[in-house]
Amino acid sequence: GEKDPCRTVTAQVWYPALSGAAERSDGSARPENYRSREMMRAAWGFFGWPIFFNSFFELVDTHSYPGAPPDRSDAPYPVILYHHGYGGFTRVHTALIEDLVSRGFVVASVGHAYETPFLERPDGSLVRFGPENPVYVGRLEEAHGETQEALKDRVVEAATTEEQERAYRELLAASPLHQESTRAWAADGSFVLDRLAMLDESDGSLGGMVDLTRVGVVGHSLGGAAAGQAASEDARVIAGVDLDGFMFGDLIDRETDAAFMFVSAARPWAGVGGSALTLFFERHAGPAYLVLIDGFEHGTFSDLPLFTGAWPGEGEEQDGDRALAVQRAYVGAFFGRHLQGIETELLDGPAPEFPGVSIRSLRVER
Fold it and tell me: What value does the mean pLDDT take over residues 212-240?
């Protein structure tokens, strides 16, 4: 943006790798830690959590190995960008990302400067941001303003799409900083795609691995809005997913042929369509899906349910494995259909294995 002409953009990239662990510099073959101690300290400083709150995270292994030899047997692979929620960071949804990679995608999780606790540099060091930085503070104040909170309630409780559109337009007009962030985050993602194109031409691990004719984007909360923004302005994006995010940005005034899945926690008091995203679903120009999940709350759309025993979450969903399985299944099926051409009945109606999930679809191209 004009106020930040040298904006720092980072991304953490996962790719399909050959079986067998890549050795670390010390000769060991252990997978990447879920969090490093430095990341946890940065998170403590940003959120003000007690120091013991997530100290065990550095003892948790992921299923990823840094520097593992790439599996080029099915390359090039379609690409998915992941956008974290406001105040989140690139590893906040590792469990979903690793599942997507296991399905044959290259996934780049994008870090957004100032609105995250930290960015990861290529050498593993961190760029840390304090919670007092004016970009973060200003947007938090805007998000929790009395006017904005009332308008969000109107969006959710609207009885018709016309009422929902009126409330949305007032919310967007009252939220200039969120509008700015949504556009900036989408631009961050487009920049990452540009860099991936360059890396695809290199001799590195991503050389020959990336297919930028098949690009998707998924985000949680404000990251979901960034996904909608990206689908509306970057022609490379042909499929997108919003995980429980109010649709800030310009999608309300734009048409896109990109396939899009709008996902919401099921809230009993919600009005039209049971979702704050019904307006966008019903008016979407391309293939569209509206998914509602019982037992979820806003924070369920992350790795958080896996740690509810030690890190209390929101809502009634106590089964972390089930919460993760639902997200993996529907997000994976959506990108499988629209980026890989893999058909599935999961997107076409009720699924016995997921009784708490409802799905509607419009203009699905077969």
Answer: 98
In this predicted structure, the answer to whether residue 53 has a pLDDT above a threshold of 70 is: no
* Residue 243 DSSP SS3: strand
How far apart are the C-alpha atoms of 23 and 166, rounded to whole Å? 56
The pLDDT tens digits of the residues spanning 79-122 come to: 999 999 998 899 999 999 999 999 999 999 999 999 998 999 88
In this prediction, residues 166-193 reach a mean pLDDT of 97
pTM: 0.92
DSSP code string of 263-288: EEE--TT--GGGSTTHHHHHT-SS-E
Say what angle helices 320-340 and 94-102 make with each other, to 10 degrees. Answer: 40
- CA nearest neighbour of 223 among 255, 193, 169, 186: 186
pLDDT digits (tens, 9 = 90+) for 128-146: 998 889 999 999 899 999 9
Distance of CA 26 to the CA centre of its chain: 33
**Residue pair 250/226 in contact by the 8 Å Cβ criterion:** no
What is the secondary structure of 89-157 as a DSSP string?
-TTTTHHHHHHHHHTT-EEEEEEETTSSSEEE-TTS-EEE--TT-HHHHHHHHHHT-HHHHHHHHHHHH
* DSSP letter (8 states) at residue 204: S
In the prediction, which pLDDT does 35 show?
83
Asked if omega into 16 is within 30° of 0 (cis), the reply is no
Give helix then strand counts, H and E, for the chain: 9, 10
Question: How is residue 53 written in tokens?
Answer: 């709150």
C-alpha 353/C-alpha 361 separation (Å) is: 19
Query: Which tokens is 322 given?
Result: 């089930």
